[in-house]
């Protein structure tokens, strides 16, 4: 999206103490401004990923459900370390213990607890996309039954964003020059240049949900992503002589 306008700003010259003269009242100085907004894009290939691995277990008591959950999650964490994912790249994101309630159809009897459900989710940062499928398969083999999401990143995201910014600036200047020529003048010096900053987010996220034991190697395709940058700029407009 691009927008362009020409603005006229008046700057009055004042003396101290203020004593307006005929020249000051009749001939204020002014400057015309060309304003444009433009976007730029750059393509980037993700080379890193984050996998959210969860274990949900049930038991007659909270202790039984928690014990089984801990056994499975410990086996998963040991497997992740064996695959080269160090402890500083693995963190617990959620741990929850909740009773399983049974309600009577007519509501005449109070609800009763029939058991407990325990869920534990860890976040694993994978620095090679080729390892993502192996990480998922190994976690499933050790008792994981929830892969809540898969997020892709690129270690070159900053470079791609700067390339998109450079393209956006070029587009903004080209629009400004075209606008100035159409108005019969030319483009002067740059007065202002800005961009909107947004929080860093994953380039792509796949919701996986609950899964069963993998029967074949899990294929993972990250594809390419587009990084978009927007800039706004103001130039002085030089009128024709």
Write the layout of secondary structure elements.
Blueprint: E1 3-11, H1 22-26, E2 29-44, E3 48-59, H2 62-82, E4 90-102, E5 112-126, H3 132-141, E6 146-153, H4 157-182, E7 186-195, E8 204-207, E9 225-238
Antiparallel strand pairs: 1-2, 2-9, 3-5, 3-6, 4-5, 6-8, 7-9
Helix pairs in contact: 2-3
Following the backbone from N to C, one meets helices and strands in this order, namely EHEEHEEHEHEEE
CATH class of the largest domain: Alpha Beta
The total of beta strands comes to 9
Report the sheet with the most strands, covering strand number, pairing sense and barrel closure. Answer: 5 strands, antiparallel
Radius of gyration: 31 Å
Care to describe what's here?
The protein has four helices and nine strands. By secondary structure, it is an alpha+beta fold. The chain has two domains: 92 residues, no CATH class; 106 residues, Alpha-Beta Plaits (2-Layer Sandwich), CATH 3.30.70. Strands 4-5-3-6-8 form a five-stranded antiparallel β-sheet. Helix 2 packs antiparallel against helix 3. It is elongated, with a radius of gyration of 31 Å. 21% of the residues are buried.
Keywords:
241 residues, alpha+beta, Alpha-Beta Plaits, 2 domains, five-stranded antiparallel sheet, four-stranded antiparallel sheet, 4 helices, 9 strands, elongated
Quickly describe the structure.
By secondary structure, the protein is an alpha+beta fold. Helices cover 26% and strands 42% of the residues. It has two domains: 3-43 and 157-197 and 229-238, no CATH class; 48-153, Alpha-Beta Plaits (2-Layer Sandwich), CATH 3.30.70.2970.
